[in-house]
Design goal:
The chain folds into two domains: about 200 residues, 2-enoyl-CoA Hydratase, Chain A, domain 1 (Alpha-Beta Complex); about 45 residues. It contains ten helices and ten strands.
Length: about 260
């Protein structure tokens, strides 16, 4: 599939999706959100893809925000639809993918950019990264899940301060907050993401899919995460990966998971 605003490449089990609008600091517009959905969907269905890395083109920005010019004249109904459609099409979609998603945050991750990074299963950052949700400085609030995912990751108080001040935090502060898992140099960012992806790929993709469902269940209203864990745990016993994993352990050899 060809894209206008992103790049997608699969190699050695890793699909790297790169937002490619450097002149706009990789800002998210409607077309880019649709292309990202398509690329994530395609990668998730591709049996050769075991891990997805999402990053931005260039050294300045992961995603510097949304393309404000697209919605500056929206009314209430249009604004509500914008948030609902965006969450369904991209942000919730990414969070619930069965393929692990690593956000490699290179540079600015602001507004919709930070919201995209937070929808990934976890994040790493370059040491020049800056993150924030500046929406209230424009008279609006984060609309792509920012008010929900940021408190889950950094705690209510820190999230409230970041949202209310519209300020940015640097990579080391993000690491201290638990917003990112690792900080490294710009040059080592993608190699580190690939190294972590390699560790993930040694394990059962079927079990990882079940783990993602179980962990996410804890953050959904009306869903008992413990019951989801029990259900997913039980289902693992019926998989070929479970048979191979336990047999390999007992035979003291490395498992060769079939992914079934």
């Amino acid at each position: 599939m060809s894209y206008q605003n992103i790049l997608s490449n699969t190699d050695n089990g890793i699909t790297t999706i790169t937002i490619n609008r450097p002149s706009k600091l990789n800002a998210l517009n409607k077309a880019t959100i649709q292309e990202l959905h398509d690329a994530f969907n395609e990668a998730n269905k591709n049996k050769d893809t075991k891990v997805i890395i999402i990053t931005g083109c260039g050294e300045k920005a992961f995603v510097a925000g949304a393309d404000i010019s697209e919605f500056a004249d929206f009314d209430v109904k249009q604004g509500k639809k914008l948030a609902a459609n965006g969450q369904e099409l991209l942000f919730d979609f990414v969070e619930n993918l069965s393929t692990p998603v690593i956000a490699a945050v290179n540079g600015f991750a602001l507004g919709g950019g930070l919201e995209l990074a937070m929808s990934a299963h976890f994040r790493i950052a370059s040491d020049n990264a800056k993150m924030g949700l500046p929406e209230v400085s424009l008279g609006v609030i984060p609309g792509y899940g920012g008010t929900q995912r940021l408190p889950q990751l950094v705690g209510k108080g820190r999230a409230m301060e970041m949202v209310m001040t519209a300020g940015m935090i640097d990579a080391n502060q993000a690491l201290d907050y638990g917003l990112v898992n690792h900080v490294t140099t710009q040059e080592e960012l993608i190699p580190l993401a690939e190294k972590i992806a390699g560790k993930i790929m040694r394990n059962s993709s079927v079990a990882i899919k079940a783990a993602i469902k179980a962990v996410n269940a804890n953050y959904k209203d009306g869903v008992d995460g413990f019951k989801t864990e029990i259900k997913q745990f039980g289902k693992c016993f019926g998989t070929e990966d479970f048979k191979e994993g336990t047999t390999a352990f007992l035979e003291k050899r490395k498992a060769a998971f079939p992914g079934k």
